[in-house]
Amino acid sequence: MFTNFIKTEQLAQFYTNPEWIIIDSRFDLQKPEWGFKDYQRSHIPGAIFVDLNQELSGSITLQSGRHPLPNPEFFAQLIARLGITPEKQVVIYDTSNGAFAARLWWMLRACRYYRAAILEGGFNKWVEEGRPTCNGIETGKALSEKPSLSFDRSMYVTTQQMEVIYTNPEYIIIDARSPERFHGELETIDPIAGHIPGALNRYHADNLNEDGTLKPREQLRKEFAELLVGKSPDKCVVYCGSGVTSCFHLAVMDYCNLPGAKLYVGSWSEWIRDPRRPIVTKT
In this model, does residue 188 exceed pLDDT 90? Predict the structure, then answer.
């Protein structure tokens, strides 16, 4: 059972197993239609495409961030279409070393589907190693009925909770965006730059080696322990631009046996919806 990450050589042994479900979740925030088109050109055999905007997010409102959680019933329809059950192994990959794949990993975990793993190095590493690919569109064996599920509320915080947490010294807040976005020096996605007061910056890509695989587990655990400064992981909240790439930190923390950190689902794009909420920029 793989519950957080899986290596390409491990997936190569099982990708033809009908009890395994492979999900392609490649995405580009600047070109939302690109992912599905690129998937059709080439993907891991058997992989089913899932779209971040259309299937892993709910409707955007005047109060929400860019990728709010969908309602559980909508997500249950996706689970049924993909044929996912708690007993089946799910592997999710992208072309961004796991930054987008982590969103579905976290959503499955929040709905108590634990047999899900992110492919280290993603599709790029799979291709570089000369492993099989195919084109076109693939579908899974759908379930006859959609499951009844709900998101575990202990795994995330709302903006209302965040308005209290950010001033509480018992909590550690980690911003997973790039340093330039964190400091407000460059913002190409959201209309306002900066970060939530009190947040620490750890870019989600800082978890990786140059080839897109994870740094050694011991090194990652040490780096996160330094951020936590002795606090329990359940006193840690991670966020990013819209609650997507920050999920990669949560997967890595789980991999390092530091479970319990929470996702601020709305993240920066929801925080800035109300001008009364404070922000910090580099001075």
Answer: no
CATH code of the domain in which 200 resides = 3.40.250.10
- Burial status of residue 276 (CB atoms within 10 A of its CB: 0-12, 13-18, 19 or more): exposed
Distance CA 117, CA 93 (A): 9
**What pLDDT digit, counting tens, does each position of 200-233 carry?**
999 999 999 999 999 999 999 999 999 999 999 9
pLDDT at 158: 97
Number of structural domains, the chain?
Answer: 2
Domain hosting residue 189, numbered range = 153-271
Q: Would you say residue 174 lies in a domain? A: yes
Residues in the chain: 283
Q: How far apart are CA 133 and CA 121, in angstroms?
A: 15
Domain boundary among 93, 128, 163: 128
* Same domain, residue pair 28 and 85: yes
Residues with catalytic roles: 240
Measured from the Cβ of residue 232, the count of other Cβ atoms closer than 10 Å reads 12
Model confidence pLDDT, tens digit, residues 69-88: 999 999 999 999 999 999 99
Q: Which residue from 5, 207, 256 is spatially nearest to 122, judged by alpha carbons? A: 5
Residue 64: CB partners within 8 Å, gap ≥ 6? 58, 266, 270, 273
